[in-house]
Design a protein that fits this description.
By secondary structure, this protein is of the alpha/beta class. The chain has a seven-stranded parallel beta sheet with strand order 3-2-1-4-5-6-7, sandwiched between helices.
Length: 259
Amino acid sequence: MDLGIAGRKAIVCAASKGLGKACAMSLGREGVELVINSRTAETLEATAEEIRQDSGAKVTAVASDITTKEGQAAVLKALPNPDILINNAGGPPPGNFRDWEREDWIKALDANMLTLIFLIKATIDGMIERKFGRVVNITSQAVLSPIEVLGLANDARSGLTGFLGGLSRNVAKHNVAINNLLPGPFDTDRFRTNVGLAAKRAGTTYEATLKVREDATSAGRVGYPYEFGEACAFLCGTHAGFIVGQNVLMDGGGFNASF
């Protein structure tokens, strides 16, 4: 399917690896010009070159911390008027809420709610003016089914979801579609790290813990990042303008619900 976005321009945050990288790869194959971001310049440039070799897409790499004003400014300087914004920021670490201080909560809100809102604020009016815009926010399955040890992420991402529920319906008439992609277990560095930590806490092996995670999905496996990237690209396409304010769960059927 031709998604109709060749020649469009996109910002993809936290795109040097994992799900952000997968989204950038898929958009590149659709002919989208990319500005990709992450904190580590060497890894980011390697990803940029991989995308160029894979699809021939034009890619600009901006190494910065997107959760800071300076980092956001650097990305927006490279592409001030994107047609597509993929909002993504690494989640806060797992833990016990009894150990978290006020600063931990504020840091989580800054990274996983306010950063995304400020990037939308900086780009949404241009999308409205051009009568085309797509914003995809990478959040988490925990928005629908909270994970106790990810309390910081549960809080920040649920707040973001509530805010976007209203904004998305306000701008849809301008052909600006805002939606959220909620990943479950995908084979990324962060997922493997969390599995390792869980195995250590439980006094068992990585393989045994991974098997538990796989068996918790109806698909019987963890997701492949490219699957997530392709879903993201579709939500950015011209055919997705009637999908508004949705939380699209990609968890292999792990969340057991009819609605």
